Amino acid sequence: MKRRVLLWMILFLLLSAPASAGLNVVATLPWIGSIAREIGGDRVRVRVLVRPTQDAHYVEARPSMILAARRADLLMYNGLDLEAGYLPVLVESSRNPRIQPGMPGDVDCSRFVEVLQGDAATGRADRSMGDIHPLGNPHYHLSPKNIARVARGMADSLSAVDPGNRDLYMANLAAFERKLSQKLKQWSGAGLEGGRFVAYHRFFEYLAAEFGFHIVGYIEEKPGIPPSAAHIQEVMERMKEDGVTKILTTVYQVGREGRYVSERTGAELVVLPHDVGSMKGVDDWFGLIDRILEVLKGGTGGGR
Ligand SMILES: [Zn+2]
Q1: Residue 54, domain member (yes or no)
Q2: Ligand 1 centre and the CA of 111: distance in Å?
Q3: I need a labelling partner for 95 at 20 to 30 A (CA). Which of 164, 183, 204, 292 fits?
């Protein structure tokens, strides 16, 4: 009799325990996962779809991504068509009503930010930057100002899906904002104002705008479009005129054009981390900005 009661108690506990406590957050990019963890804390399980060494512009859908999307309570993504190659098919194939367009679990982080449309090299504002930046520059994750907005947007989105834990998300947001304001003080001494660089891709425009340096030319002719010989020549002349000594690039873009320009001009090819996890020791979004500023100031690249 006693044993039977015990068995019933165990069965009751098993059945009454929630199958899975907390929210499943699927983030396309590592930095999005990093901020989601800060804001969601122990209420969220975060799954990141894109590997930290991948070029976010060229990702293909995999079956494991569809499985993850099927279980997602929230899908958080960069937007501005950065995920155009795989996200629409993923959302549709998931048949998950919670993350369909317009649902509370559909979190396009670009909704929260101020998008740069123009060309940092010329100051021109236009939408003809090329095929892979059709809606403006999508690499806003290197903007502390925009990340503050994204963090708030995430806290609101999590609260909308899980109103019972709103206080917790808001407390995590406040902690994130405190950390960010401390870091901003530290970063304000980066001393990059007036610096002039050339970059492979239009990847560092937000950072340049907020830290006061200039990208005076790009090795790519347009985003996603490899350069012609004439364009490379122009860039090298520009570098000479402006005394540029550093070419900024990312781990997946150290191509032969960059090496060629580096060899011909004597400028250093500087490889910067583009996302969380892309280099050893870059473990969260704060670490990402820390490392980029450190390298731009002349420190060493990889390793801690
Ligand atoms: Zn891009």
Answers
A1: yes
A2: 18
A3: 164
